[in-house]
Fold this protein.
Amino acid sequence: MTIVMSSNEAPTSESTVGLIGGLVNDVKDLAVAHLEGIRLEVKEEFRDLKSSIKYAAAAAAVFVVAALLASFSAAQALWTYTALPSWAAYAITAVLFIAAGLALLRARSRGSQDIDLVPDTGLRRLERDAKWMSSKTREAVS
């Protein structure tokens, strides 16, 4: 729809309504596109998290087996090369591994603050375009 006006003619209400309607449709299309981008970003982050959890679980299983073997070896060595009874050697070894586990848990709790599943990039784009559309709407209405 093309409107031809002379320089002193005011736009008709029909053309203003049409412009605002087109602007609303553009805003809707832009919002849908951004929401789709955010959905894809979240999906990708969950896929990466799932993969990371699989590897972490496999590593944990291997470390558990290694820790069991190391604790048996340490307890046997302590029992063999000292005058301690076997139960004391195993108790000392268990306490050492408990201390190591607590240290690992403490280190993990400090690092877990970096986990972020919020689609920051998509939300920043949505905010930027919403501000742009808001300014264009104000210009069109003025």
Notes: The chain has three helices and no strands.
